[in-house]
Amino acid sequence: GNSVTQMEGPVTLSEEAFLTINCTYTATGYPSLFWYVQYPGEGLQLLLKATKADDKGSNKGFEATYRKETTSFHLEKGSVQVSDSAVYFCALRRGTNAGKSTFGDGTTLTVKP
Amino acid sequence: GAGVSQTPSNKVTEKGKYVELRCDPISGHTALYWYRQSLGQGPEFLIYFQGTGAADDSGLPNDRFFAVRPEGSVSTLKIQRTERGDSAMYLCASSNEAGHNEQFFGPGTRLTVL
């Protein structure tokens, strides 16, 4: 079946540091890949997505590239801010059953001033 | 416009009781999804509707769980004979059709079974 594996947290960084959160997946076919963010006390929000191999999703300074050869979708940001502190979830949706999403377990990021 | 809303925000019940959790999707969204999230884990798929019909209910853990969406808008997740293991955050999401469209999530209902 489908699965998503995220790097374990928590991750603590200083402001302006470089961020990488690793995500790898297992799926048949050609899934779409997503990063969601959950800020404290709020619901899940879509951060970025990529629907085919070599696509790069980007939003709010975050980027992730769909790498089919390594089945990865790592999240990066060049300079994090305190306001980026949140839980980040990697997820996939398969093309043939695109209703359901499969999520990783989440990575908690804390950015200190 | 209004986002996805879920009621109640918190529900505490006793083992063996019946509960209903409600989801109001974004107006016009035809697809609606239910997920369950345990502490420290990602959301786990339960069921999704396309219109009034359940397009995929493969994530429902057993026959104590049931969901309906009779008019293709509001949905209710029903849990019979609740068990302590049912305690979790229940999330609802909606999207404009299924497929690769963005899913918009509600704030969730935290269910606690004592």
Account of the protein in words:
The complex is a heterodimer of chains A (113) and B (114). Chain A is an all-beta fold and 113 residues long. Helix content of chain A is 0%, strand content 49%. In chain A, β7 and β8 (62-65) form a beta hairpin. Chain B is built from no helices and 11 strands. In chain B, β4 and β5 form a beta hairpin. Chain B is globular. The N and C termini of chain B lie far apart (37 Å). In chain B, 35% of the residues are buried. The model of chain B has no long low-confidence stretch (mean pLDDT 93). The interface between A and B is medium-sized, with 24 and 29 residues.
Which descriptor suits the 3D outline of chain A? globular
CA distance, first residue to last residue of chain B = 37 Å
Alpha plus pi helix count of chain A: 0
| Helix content estimate of chain A | under 10%
- The secondary structure category of chain A is mainly beta
Largest interface: which pair?
A: A-B, 24 and 29 residues
The count of β-strands of chain A is 12
Shape of chain B: globular
**Gap from first CA to last CA of chain A:** 41 Å
Category by helix and strand content of chain B: mainly beta
Please give the largest β-sheet of chain B. Answer: 7 strands, mixed
Topology record:
The complex is a heterodimer of chains A (113) and B (114).
Chain A lengths: L2 E4 L4 E4 L4 E3 L1 E4 L5 E7 L6 E6 L5 E4 L2 E4 L9 E3 L8 E8 L8 E2 L3 E6 L1
Parallel strand pairs in A: 2-12
Antiparallel strand pairs in A: 1-4, 3-9, 5-6, 5-10, 7-8, 8-9, 10-11, 10-12
Chain B lengths: L4 E3 L2 E4 L5 E6 L6 E7 L6 E7 L2 E4 L8 E4 L6 E5 L8 E8 L8 E2 L3 E5 L1
